[in-house]
Structure prediction request, 241 residues.
Amino acid sequence: MTPPPSPARAAAAAPGPTPSTFAERARSAMGWLHTAHFLSSAPKLEHLPPVGLPEIAFVGRSNAGKSTAINTLTQHKRLAFASKTPGRTQHINLFGVGKGQVDDAVLADLPGYGYAAVPREAKLRWQRVMGNYLMTRESLAGVVLMVDPRLGLTELDEVLLDVIRPRVEEGLNFLVLLTKADKLSRAEATKALSIARLQAGGGEVKLFSALKRQGVDDAAELLWRWTHADSGNAGAAAPAA
Ligand code: GDP
Prediction:
């Protein structure tokens, strides 16, 4: 694992001055995300190394498009991969991100939930592991929840929302990505957005399509800001939705 940077190295590796336009900031954020590399994998919360860098958790029901979203954002074909074999995805996978070979953030890919073939006992175990992670992981800077808008927020998504709501109210960043947006008509997209905004309890909601590259730059720029709140580059205005 990459050790935390010394202040001098971090300064040397930090991206340059704040790019002024959204397009420039998004490009810089995409370059940053492209540095993502595998750090470690843990079956339980207590096995996760305390990384000490701002961490962004990716969560969602299985098949919501989480692996595709992570691969699209990081521009890697198989950094995260969907395994349809129960048991194989039951790990929290951590990826380091940082320019100049110095990690300054971590992406955490949490196992997809709600997969029908997973035995009830394993489902309950995972609800506990995930709940613990989301409630207690100190370095958590934000949560990205992937939702297939054609299904909307399911009961298990609601459970997750209940778990993180107190932390979101305390300022934890939260983004709902409505995935596979290319499958929606304009009217369906508008409706899905307004319903999800009502349910997201203070979080942001954005349409996302890996296929059409819709919402990719917005999400990348947001993730960068979440993890660089202290860098002086974080004050840039959010792009228009
Ligand atoms: P995961 O189980 O949440 O990791 O979901 P995957 O990333 O494996 O995606 C589930 C299915 O949705 C796969 O068949 C993907 O090809 C499909 N998918 C994911 N993203 C998109 C998208 O943006 N557009 C379309 N049309 N399909 C997508």
Observations:
- The beta strands are 37-42, 55-60, 92-97, 105-109, 140-147, 173-178, 204-207.
